[in-house]
Design brief:
Keywords: Signal. This is Endoribonuclease L-PSP. GO terms for molecular function: deaminase activity. Pfam families: Ribonuc_L-PSP (PF01042). The structure is a single chain. The chain has a domain at 1-171: 60s Ribosomal Protein L30, Chain: A, CATH 3.30.1330. Strands 1-2-17-20-18-19 form a six-stranded mixed beta sheet. The chain has a six-stranded mixed beta sheet with strand order 7-6-8-3-10-9. It has helices at 2-16, 67-83, 105-116, 188-205, 226-234, 316-333, 354-364, and strands at 23-27, 38-42, 46-49, 55-56, 61-62, 87-99, 123-128, 138-146, 156-159, 166-170, 175-181, 213-220, 245-249, 256-263, 277-280, 294-297, 302-308, 341-348, 372-377, 388-394. Helix 2 packs across helix 3. With 398 residues, the chain is α+β, with helices and mostly antiparallel strands. The protein contains seven helices and 20 strands. The longest helix has 18 residues, at 188-205.
Length: 398
């Protein structure tokens, strides 16, 4: 009976979110938390937004207020931006929430439930990070399915002149997830420039084009220089095609690490891989048994998993195994497995966990098929007494 109830819940959400030609399904949605264990989207153009702050977009300033009110304003801004590309809040498949302080997370969650309850329950990840504007208490970026049957062959980017918000449309098709890359330098600006140059070399190796970059996420320090890093990143693109970017503060000896999502051209029919995801190591880079330099989703379908932490506190090994065991169960139920993970982002609030984390990953990953990944030491993973958060994208086995 429990399994039947779960199935009916998934079917109900699927029916509520079905369009004429595509599907969005939410697995095990929770009315209590307002999120699902994962969201599955099939054959749909996806909108990727920049990191959206609680701005009065006509004035370009963060509106002071409590975390709940700022959350409401961020959602208004997201709805405005998504509307420009024929998407809505109610087709979000992944919601990434960045909160300035851990104690504000419950207030943000409650406002999200109030605003989105019974409308959408996406996969969701919360991270505590200082934000680009010190007045901002919360920011978000999303991945949302389009409401229309629109088909595109290359990335389309919309830059809103009034607000400065950005959204890129990812075609339904091959997508490269490029692991975070970092180049050492004396200043954040110099490191950003050299890292972007290295990413462009990786893109060239893949046969991709800068005009098809969809989203960049930068882990950097210090956040107070985030605008300078943004200026360097923007300098790599024409003004009207500046890509959506998210900034996360990390604690590292490296000034910045940047990961990339890019649409790739479709291969000839006779050269299409049999696998739904393939893994690459660009020339001059070293392969690793626990992460791939690049993972290429060869199909349009995506599985976005909500951020996973250990169910209970414990030693490092217990916490890590708990998160991975949850992941394995979720992706299996969604039609994937541990050999078809495309992208991982690992957030840790105690860097001492890294040794155990590296070892235990080898218990779960095929050394020839680990996901592309980034690992960032952050202020908090948003839940008291938790020190590891795993954020995953998978593709179906078939």
């Amino acid at each position: 009976m429990k399994s039947l109830t779960k199935l009916l819940t998934v079917v109900l959400i699927l029916v509520l979110t079905r369009s004429a030609s595509a599907e969005v399904a939410y697995l095990n949605p929770s009315a209590e938390t307002g999120i699902s264990q994962c969201a599955v989207v099939k054959n749909r153009v996806l909108a990727h937004t920049s990191q959206i702050l609680p701005l009065n977009f006509k004035g370009g300033k963060v509106v002071p207020g409590n975390a709940g009110d700022q959350t409401g304003l961020v959602l208004e801004n997201l709805d405005y931006l998504l509307g420009k590309v024929n998407a809505t809040l109610y087709k979000i498949v992944k919601l990434n929430v960045y909160v300035a302080r851990e104690e504000l997370v419950p207030e943000v969650k409650q406002r999200l439930i109030k605003e989105l309850k019974f409308k959408v329950q996406p996969a969701c990840t919360f991270v505590v990070s200082q934000l680009p504007d010190p007045q901002a208490l919360v920011a978000m970026d999303v991945v949302a399915a389009l409401d229309s049957d629109k088909k595109i062959s290359k990335t389309e980017i919309y830059n809103d002149n009034v607000s400065g918000f950005r959204v890129a449309l990812l075609p339904a098709g091959r997508t490269a997830y490029i692991s975070g890359q970092a180049v050492k330098a004396d200043t954040l600006e110099e490191a950003t420039k050299k890292t972007m140059e290295e990413l462009h070399q990786t893109l060239k190796y893949l046969g991709g084009s800068p005009e098809n970059i969809v989203h960049l996420k930068a882990f950097l320090t210090p956040m107070k220089q985030g605008n300078s890093a943004m200026d360097v990143i923007d300098g790599f693109f024409p003004e009207k095609r500046r890509v959506p970017v998210t900034l996360v503060e990390w604690f590292s000896t490296l000034p910045i690490e940047i990961e990339m999502i890019v649409a790739l051209p479709e291969p000839a029919a006779d050269s299409r891989p049999a696998e739904t995801v393939v893994y690459k190591t660009p020339t001059g880079m070293k392969a690793s048994p626990v992460f791939s330099r690049v993972a290429i989703a060869e199909v349009s379908d995506r599985i976005y998993v909500s951020g996973l932490t250990s169910k209970e506190p414990g030693n490092y090994s217990t916490r890590i195994h708990s998160a991975f065991d949850q992941l394995k169960a979720i992706v299996t139920e969604a039609g994937s497995d541990m050999q078809h993970l495309a992208k991982a982002t690992y957030y840790v609030s105690e860097n001492e966990i890294s040794g155990d984390f590296g070892k235990i990953r080898q218990e779960y990953y095929n050394p020839k098929r680990p996901p592309a990944a980034s690992k960032a030491t952050v202020k908090s993973v948003g839940i008291p007494n938790r020190i590891l958060l795993m954020d995953m994208i998978a593709v179906p086995v078939k």
